[in-house]
Records
---
Amino acid sequence: MVTTKLRNSDNCDFGDLDVSKSKHMMTYEHSSGGFVLKDIDTILPGTSTIPSQFVSTVIDQIDIDSIEFTGIDGGTFT
């Protein structure tokens, strides 16, 4: 049977999800076989670490008028 709720899963224990865990993201850690919370800043470092030439190339190659945004679906969490 597949677990559909995190609270019923035996491979994640995040403790109290309070303000100290704000800006954390749930990731799967293969070595432990479980889910862990990681500070989002360690996963997605600030834009200052992205080379400006890369940013310029992306901006030049994306036609913003051809992008159709229909919303974001992050799944269901209960």
Note: The chain has a mean pLDDT of 79.
---
Amino acid sequence: MKVMICKPYIQTEDGKTRLTADIKAGDDTFSLWYEVEEQYAKYLVTEHSDSFVVVLLPWAMMKAKKLQESVTLTCENPLSARLYHQLINYYIPVLSDSISYYAPIKLETETDAQTLPCVGAVGTGVSGGVDSSYTITKYKDYQLQPYRLTHAVYYNVGIYGGFESCAEKGIQTKTRQIAHDTGLEYVQLTSNVCLTLYKAAHAPIVPAVFFSAALSLQKLFGVYYYSSAFIAKDFKMSEEDAAYYDLLNVHSLSTENLTFYSSGIERSRLEKLVSIANAPIVQNNLLVCLNVKEQAINCNHCAKCTRTMAELEVLGKLDNFRNVFNVEEFRKNKGYHWGYILLKSKSDVFCEEIIDIYKSQKKHFSLNVHWSTFLKWVKRGFTSVNKARRRVEDEIR
């Protein structure tokens, strides 16, 4: 199958500007786009096809595996030479050799080693989460000016009930406030790439989605911090979560214009929380919730809310976060919350870290917690793994 990325072009309407490329994949034709507010339109990259290649790469490799046929990815506009070199020599071979749902593909395109005009801004994603908050706190006043944060980027990829949902608007309001309070320029970037290609923000493809979006603004950013979830010592070629190999991602997806850094690989999740837990802006704005029905507030019941509250509790910092969490409910329902943490501690590095700290404090779980853990294990089919989790390779376009 041949996949052609046609020349990217600009569309402007109602104060918003889109960088769009039409994609021809066999008999299928569709468009991918990145949209920004008018003041950032001049930074969108039409000269190169970098952003579209990066976001299509996992999709094309899954197609090659699923269809059991050769896939060739081509571009009408050139690809950055550094990116091309890294993809064909490292990224594609390593991914296809390590991940069962990927097969190698061919990448046939002209290349361009010339740098594009760039203002040299320094960006990172803003979500309100732990990893994002750590990056912003560390780099907003960084001593080396070329690496000091200037912009916070919120990515609206439509996963919270659509591009214009109440949840999306609530998160946008909160993240805009975080940027304002930390003295950073706020960039809102909306894109259909995630829903069009992958239907949801599956963990194996999240880096490709967000790296590609940053690459669409290479005339703005010279440095970009991608907030990593995992510490470097946990590096592995994981089929469940591409964040485990972020060191490979940042190396392979940088270009002549834009250098990616894996912010946070030097600290564990609990170490990050220790460093940010006393910051009022984090205490008042921490947003980790997986519940898409919530409007930029933590539901206090989902897996990420439970895990984050447990992390803060073992650190003795949970009371500092009463503005964003229901602390009394967490402590009242120990079976529900700690039962989940104990169950997941055998398969989740974050929960394992929590339990290690808990035990080091000479604390013990009540019978109620152990019983809750057992019931959750039985309900999941005698495993700590969520068997209902959707697999990205089954849901690609």
Note: The mean pLDDT is 95.
---
Amino acid sequence: MRKTIILLLAMAFSLAGLAQDAKDAKQNQAEDGKPQAATAPATNKKVPGNTKVFLVPMGGFEEDMRAAFKAKKVQMVLVADKDQADYEIT
């Protein structure tokens, strides 16, 4: 019985998420009916190693990103001043 209830709750949350995605997609359509990009276009360019990067404050999430970059040994220099950075993560 518990498994059935858990399964039904999981399905309900999944459907709610799908409905929200469909609603967002409709809102992102331009007036001519063509969908607009929700994010910046992906590129195949690689960022060179030891590039200076500034993490914009994101309510504490920037600290998690900083820790993840350090744990994965990403070759970048995190700077505290936006003017010194080559790239900015927002």
Note: The chain has two domains: 1-40, 51-89.
---
Amino acid sequence: MLKEYLDIIINSYQGYFNYLVAEITHPSLHNYVYMLLGVSLFFWGLEASRPWRKDQPLLRQDFFLDGFYMFFNFFLFPLLIFIAVSNLSFALFNRFSALLGVSNLIAVNLAALPKVLQLVIFFICRDFIQFNIHRLLHRSDFLWQFHQVHHSVKQMGFAAHLRFHWMENVFYRSLEFIPLGLLGFGATDFFLVHIFALVIGHSNHTNYRLPLGPLKYIFNNPQMHIWHHAKELPYRYGCNFGISLSIWDYLFKTDYIPKDGRDVPLGFYGDESFPKNFLGQAVFPLFQNKK
């Protein structure tokens, strides 16, 4: 049994490394590396041509730090540890389920529905789960120590979307696993929905104004999300927690857009002493939680 788990770990590293090399060396429309690069360049172009905060430099504060976070969280971190741990956890979960006599995790079979409708359901369910995880990151003192990395942004831009502590990968993926598994969604579904959510997430953090009219009550947007990053907040645990969809905030009364937030100060109280570099931010919560 031990050899089986060691093989899972070794194969995970080998498989992901080969995948990453193939992604980098074979550009295509279905290539995540270049899709992420293309989406990022598109929104950077919007910041250059139609900046909302016109006095903010194109190479804003921490631009390259956020670029490294984008590379680390989406490519390097899975290679270092996450892909092996997640595959091992999946194998252990399946073995434990089998011991309990559970052979099929799927509770709701959506296979009979049209594919587009399946993806829409997946997108809505995943976003609702992430909305609640995001609220938890703010309400839990322990989890907030990690989430502070994302809120340490002082000048907002598209790449700030992907500035988050590596532990958030663990929180989100772990808490998403069972509820999404119950709906029977696979890797292809995840990829398509993830790309759509990536575009919205980049948009929400981009330095440009996106008037949505009545659609602002459904989709998150830069004018709404800027208030989530505001240093002065109306509620104890924050506001505007929606990831892709804003409708959850309006339904659960966590919405807050008192005025145009273009020049609202960003951050959190105490961020003056927060580390300014990647390594310091990566280990800071771990030492804080030992106090």
Note: The two ends are 39 Å apart (CA to CA).
